[in-house]
Amino acid sequence: MSKTNFFDSKIFKSRVTTRTVSTKEKILGHLIGPLGLIFIINTIAALVEKFFTQQVGAMYANNIDKITQMGTVYETVMTITKLVGIVTGILIPLLISKTKSSNGRFRTLYPFFGILSVILGCTIFLRNDNVTDKFWITFFILLVVYHTIACVFFYLFRDNIVSLSSRSAKEKYQLSFIRKASWTLISGIIIGMIINMVVLPLWLEKDINGYALLLIILSIVSIPLIFLEFYYTRERIIEEDVEEKIKEEIPIKVQLKALFSDKFFIIMTIISTVITIADNFKGGNVQYFYIKFCLNGENNPLMYTIYQVVTGVPLGIGAIAIYPLAKKYGIKNVSLIGFALLLSFFGSTIGCSFGAFSC
CA separation (Å) from 59 to 125, 128, 129, 203? Predict the structure, then answer.
């Protein structure tokens, strides 16, 4: 008698039954469903540093040395988190590769990591009125677990689910565009504009307990969306491999050799690494503090709206234009041109900055 695989049970079975990507799958599984974890992930990214600085200010308002010390602790913990993230970035894909199921590999683990993300999101900001130094131990442990486990799986799922949903290049283009729209447009409007422009300056700055309440509200909204994405996505490629009982596995050494012999992959890896490093230096709340202190947003809340509109319109245009451009000229060419423009703009900005300081 053959053993029954837990992940092969009906509870993990996708509600999508078509061999090609259906309209319902596009809308529910790739446009609306992903907003569940996007709300949690992006909101925490936008608020965690602001919460930290606000809590430190409330606890050590008259102790500059302690505030400086806490800033150093935060940077140290986040550096360690990135190093641990490298390890979990290897272990979690290994776990996924060892998951054998006709219902897929990523999908079957998605509800567990999704609910973990929600729980961590709610508890990171929990506090009471009698906060002591012990609070920071819990805060940093939760933050490390969130970044090294929950976030790692989220980005792995986001970056791989499209390629596992279909072998059709056309369908992959469509799904990629839809998920980008969900991430950039819908999430950008709700989180980037509403939270940064309304919720943060009008509520959270005045009530630090509001952070936890906000995440609890978002979690209530997110859980149904997590299961919507889970049930209305389908890993057709994995299903086909299981049905055909493909046993041949390409050694990791051969896969790595193939990757690093591709010049395009090397260029994209270098550029992505540079952008990631720059983003880490930037921090999560640089825009908020820039508007507040440099653009006088503290006394003129309208500056938050103006900044979001000015920066959001080009992003929205790009999100809409990228699909037809990639379809006509190819993802490879559009990516190289886009990164070339980005790096040239980045270089010219640095040059202008040095020129301004030398005057």
Answer: 15, 12, 11, 19
Reply yes or no on whether the pLDDT at 105 is more than 50: yes
Place of tokens 């390629």: 163
Handedness of CA 147, 48, 194, 216 (dihedral sign): positive
What's the Cα-to-Cα distance from 1 to each of 48, 139, 244, 309, rounded to whole Å? 51, 48, 21, 63
- Residue 117: burial class (beta carbons within 10 Å; 0-12, 13-18, 19+): buried
pLDDT of 245 reads: 55
Instruction: Please indicate, yes or no, whether the overall pTM of this predicted structure exceeds 0.85.
Output: no
Q: Is 297 helix (H, G, I), strand (E, B) or coil?
A: coil
Residues in the chain, how many?
359
Q: Which of the residue ranges 4-18, 71-85, 133-147, 258-272 would you say has the lowest mean pLDDT?
A: 258-272
Q: Which two tokens stand for residue 49?
A: 């540093």
Q: What is the pLDDT of residues 22-59, one digit of tens each?
A: 999 999 999 999 999 998 998 898 888 889 988 888 88
Please say whether the beta carbons of 287 and 196 come within 8 A.
Answer: yes
Residues 6 or more apart in contact with residue 13 via CB below 8 angstroms: 103
How would you write 262-301 as a 3-class SS string? Answer: CHHHHHHHHHHHHHHHHHHHHCCCHHHHHHHHHCCCCCCC
What span, in angstroms and rounded, lies between the C-alpha atoms of 322 and 327?
A: 8
Any idea what DSSP says for residue 105?
Answer: S
- Average pLDDT value over all residues in the chain: 81
Place of tokens 């978002």: 218
